[in-house]
Every structure is written in C-alpha cells, then in structure tokens.
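Example record

The entry below shows one chain as it appears in the dataset: sequence first, then structure tokens.
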Amino acid sequence: MASTTPLTGQPDSNEFDVIIIGAGLSGIGSGVRLQRDCPGTRYAILERREAIGGTWDLFRYPGIRSDSDMHTLGYDFKPWSAEKAIADGPAIREYVNATADEYGVRQHIRFQHRLTAANWDSGLNQWLLTVETGAGEQQYRCNILLMCAGYYSYDAGYQPEFPGRESFGGTWVHPQFWPADLDYKDKNVVVIGSGATAMTLVPNMAQTAAKVTMLQRSPTYVISRPSVDAGANWLRRHLPDKVAYAITRWRNTVWQQFFYGLSRVAPSVLRGMLLKKVRQELDGILDVEKHFTPHYNPWDQRLCLVPDDDLFQALKSGRAGVVTDHIDHIDETGIVLQSGERLDADIIVSATGLNLVILGDAKFTIDGQAIDFSSEWTYKGMMCSNIPNMVQTFGYINASWTLRADLIAHWVTRVVNHMSERGYSSFTPRIPEQLARSMPKRLWIDDFSAGYMQRVMHLFPKQGDQHPWVNPQNFRKDRRMFRDETLEDGALIFERSKSESESVEPALKKAG
C-alpha cells in the first residue's frame, strides 16, 4: 500500500495519510484526485454538516444559482452535461453528489465532523486534529491536512447594525438561513444589498411578491449572458462529451481572463461595454447613472451576473425596483432612508454578505504554539511560510472557483507521490530572512476592494512581489506554477523524519 509517509505504529481508524476538511466542490474534487492519482493513500474527508455540497447545500434561498458557467465551475475530469450552463443550486448539488458516488468518494466522508483545532507535532510529523462529532469530541491524525472548508463562516452571515431593527414588525431574513416556509406571495419585500445574492433574489421573488425593491448604498457592475450556452451544447451534440467539454472550458477560461485583463489595462473600455447593455435595457425605465454606474472600475469588485436578462425584465415589469440611498433607521413598518424617503415592507431580506474566516475558523498551533497567519507569507496562494504539510484551497475571485481548486488538488497529488517515492515526511515553505525583511508586503488578495474581503485581509498571510511568495489569481500563471514547476524549488523544503534520516545515512555511506 502506497503511503505519503511511514506512520508510527499500526494506524487506527482515525489515522490517515491525508485528511480533507470539507465535502463541498473543492473537497469532493480533491478526494477524486487522491483516489485516482495516488492509489493506496489512506484519506478521509471530514464534513461538519450531514450532506455533501457545501455552499450549494447550505444556501436555499429562491433562485440560488452559480454566477459562473458550469463548464469552468465544474470539475475538469467530469463534463457538465446539463442544458443550462448557468445552473441553479439543486443542479449543482446533484452534480457534486453524482461525482462523489461515481468515483467512490462518499465512503471516505465522515459527516457531522467539525474541525475545531489542529496541532502540528514536529516529533511525529503529523497533524493532530480535535474534531467535534455527533458522538462527542474525537482525535484524528494525519500527515497532510488539506483545507477545503471554503472561506466564510457557516455559523453567521455578515449583518450590519441597523438602528431600530428590533422594532420591525415584519419578517427579517438573512439569505444564508432562509426559512423553508417563508411566504412572500403578494408581500412587499425590500432586499438590502447589491451583490450576487440580491440580484438573484429580486427577479425570483418578484414573480409572486407584490413588489420587490433592491435597496443599495452604491451601484454594482452587472453583466448579462444567456443561461444556455448554445455553442457548448452544439459541440456536445457533435463531439464526444470530454472533447466538447475541454474545448468549451478552454474557451471560457480565455474569455474570463481576457475580460479581467481588460479591466486592469483598459478599465474605461470595459466600463463602456458593460454600461452600454444596461442602458439598452433600462434607459427610460430608471436612472442608469444613479443605480447601475459604480464609482470604481470593473473588477475592483466582483461583477454580478444577470442570466437571461432576468433582473432587467423584472425591473421593466414594474414588479421590482431599485433604490440607491443609505438607511437612516428601521421602524415597525419598514425602512426610513437618509433622503427622507421610506420603503414599506412586510419582509426585509438582509443580503449584506458573508463573514470571512481563515481555514474554517479552527485554531491552529505548531507544537502547542499558536500560529499567527498574518505574520507569515503565502506560498503560491495555497500554503503559509513555516507551516508544514498544510494546504489551503482558495479559488478565484475573478474567475470560477473550481479552476484553481482543481489545480491545487493536482499539485497535492504530485506532493503525495513525491514524498512516497523519496521517503519524505514533511514539506514546509521557508522564506529567506533577508527576503522577508526587504520584500514589499501586499494583501493576500490584492487590488480588490469588496467589503467582505477588506474586513478580514489583515488576518490573512501577506504576499510579496517575488515568486513563489505570491497569490497570482491568474489561471494561466497558476497552471504553469502548479503543473510544470519543480516541487523542490528551493522555497518548499522537503525533509525526512529524524529516525528515517538516521537509517538512510549509513546506507548511503555504505553504498559510497
């Protein structure tokens, strides 16, 4: 049986070569990679909830959907075959579950297992995990810890303090915890926010609500595209599924990177392209300059997708509206704005965003000493300096999440096999002291002003301006970095355990 490292003693049922935290898109994809590319590796997936799917199982608000096409949000090894490329939550959830069953990953998942603490034991070259389970606290051990827990808190969404909120006599909802029995038919609804969640909720709720108003402090750039990719579907009818999928995936990644690159070098050009579409749809309906023209450049914050013009159609029908203003206070029957205008509401949906957390909000230590991630440097946007054998999966903010998750999972399998072949037990990014002192410090996600990121960036590891101490957020660069570059690059230090080194050294002398 292949193993990432010779483990001490006879392994028990809670000891593994690799433990993956999270059974969402990233975790299931990583499990498939390990099972397929590292046969014999003992791994487990610890999932805090009772179901596969992560975000796509947790969020159940009306109309929940991807804001990326499924040809790039899907796995590179499993073609997306549904008609719609912009898929709803249930379809994505079914896709992830089907992947887990097709590749035999489900049997490796331990549900209702929440990681609360992880300590790297330098003597054992293992992570010792403290895990809350349905049967009480348990201890797990592994050589490699792969964090696929996402980037936001499952316990609470971001909720600003609104004066007078407690006096509201209607129903208050946060989309992260949508009530299954919420009845909004013929009700007046105000959705606070202007991000992807708000722009999904408004047209969907407007189908049956009396009126849905999107209340925003400032506008967001929107981009409209069909939910059905006619070109992809044509390719699938005429070519084998894997070939058609690969072509579509390549095409879409090129377009994603092109538009993001355009936003960096010619933001006014992209701005004009985006606003032209909005004006074509909404001029004469509302004030486009006021409600859909941001004061920042495209991709300084994430663009919002409007599939099949659904938001525009809802606004043109009169069943939805947009108000750009600040909240003064909330009273028993609605919201009073700083302009003096008021919005009556039976239901207020606070689509105000997420609370970001680092590595699933668990506590991390090395030999009992707490890790301060903010004092470390990122290694290729997936590891931290001086922290052994732990990889974090964090996707793109300017493209589909899974594109980067796939690349990281592939890199991890390279490491697992490399360690098995060479007898290594640890791998740690080490930054030279002189470089750490002289290199400029940049935010881990740089050049991105979205509030949900800015609120926590000071807690994340920093990046520099020299490779590999960077987080490129660029699919082309990342693909070369993860697939082509040598593992032993001088920054990532591989080591054997002391006992292994002592046994190898005499053999080498004898051979010499």
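Notes for this example: The chain is about 30% helix and 25% strand. Confidence is low (pLDDT under 50) at residues 1-11, 503-512.
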